[in-house]
Amino acid sequence: MPDFQYCLNSSTIRPAKILDKIRIAGTVGYSAIELWHDDIDAHVARGGTLGEIRAALSDNGLAVPTTIYLKGWFETTGAEHVAELDECKRRMAQAVEVGAIHVIAGPPGGMADHELGARNYRELLELGLSMGVKPAMEFLGFVDDVNTIEDALEIVTKAGHPAGTVVLDPFHIFRGGGSVESISLLTDKQIAIMHFNDTPASPPREQQHDKDRVYPGDGHLDLRHLLALLEGTGYRRWLSLELFSEALWAQDAMEVARVGLEKMRAVVEG
């Protein structure tokens, strides 16, 4: 397998505060960390600054592939869209301040107007690029509509902007019922990041949610095949450990991050 870069999605150690998450990621040996805007807002609400976050990232030698996430931009029109876009602007400004390359743009929960979403994604891209960050289209396996690689790629293609990208995730590929082979439809430049995780064989696919994700290699997915498909696109960047396990949140955050990195390496390098 090629030399991917290992990233920690900070949701994996959610109870920790943002500066602790950054320190843990650097200490354990990750090269990057994905930050959530809720954590950034909580830090600022406690009297912290974005400068402190930037300094912590620099001290620990961590890149920020993405911040998470933008919502409401896809499905809205008129005054509601203006209001949602204002919040997206605020979050994108934060993303730029902490040095993020991409900001993840999530789909709506219900059925979606793909034409509207494509127009709005192009608008979001142009706005983000003018600010210095690239919004990346995410599909979510448990939503009603935009739940496969094909759906996300359709939005990106219809948007017609060369900077359009997709977020990949083994859990969402499985949960949405799409084909992992569809990774081959993408080019390297169309992939913002690969979230990395595994899923158990039960409960049934249709009943699984974020909380059911497990460490890479602890589930039933053929992650080696997924990585081979990813390699075929030319992608050589981040694999980001993204879990939402209450059981792991109750454990020592440093240990969870350490075990997660070991398990990713075992899948990729073993």
Features:
270 residues; 8 strands; 44% helix; 8-stranded parallel barrel; 10 helices; TIM Barrel; alpha/beta
Task: Write the topology of this structure.
Blueprint: E1 5-9, H1 18-28, E2 32-36, H2 37-45, H3 50-59, E3 64-70, H4 78-97, E4 100-105, H5 114-131, E5 134-138, H6 149-159, E6 166-168, H7 170-176, E7 191-196, H8 223-233, E8 238-241, H9 246-249, H10 253-269
Parallel strand pairs: 1-2, 1-8, 2-3, 3-4, 4-5, 5-6, 6-7, 7-8
Helix pairs in contact: 1-3, 1-10, 4-5, 5-6
Summarize the structure.
This protein has 270 residues and is of the alpha/beta class.
Radius of gyration: 17 Å
CATH hierarchy: architecture: Alpha-Beta Barrel
Termini gap: 9 Å
Write down the secondary-structure element order.
EHEHHEHEHEHEHEHEHH
User: Overall mean pLDDT score?
Assistant: 97
CATH fold category name = TIM Barrel
Structural class: alpha/beta
| Helix share bin | 40-55%
Number of strands: 8
Strand order of the largest sheet: 1-2-3-4-5-6-7-8
Distinct helical segment count: 10
CATH class wording: Alpha Beta
Strand content: 15-25%
The total tally of domains equals: 1
Shape: globular
Stretches with pLDDT under 50, minimum 5 residues: none
CATH superfamily: Divalent-metal-dependent TIM barrel enzymes
Largest sheet: 8 strands, parallel, barrel
Describe the 3D structure.
The protein has a single domain (5-269), classed as TIM Barrel (Alpha-Beta Barrel), CATH 3.20.20.150. 44% of the residues lie in helices and 15% in strands. It has helices at residues 18-28, 37-45, 50-59, 78-97, 114-131, 149-159, 170-176, 223-233, 246-249, 253-269, and strands at residues 5-9, 32-36, 64-70, 100-105, 134-138, 166-168, 191-196, 238-241. Strands 1-2-3-4-5-6-7-8 form an eight-stranded parallel beta barrel, surrounded by seven helices. The radius of gyration is 17 Å and the shape is globular. The mean pLDDT is 97.
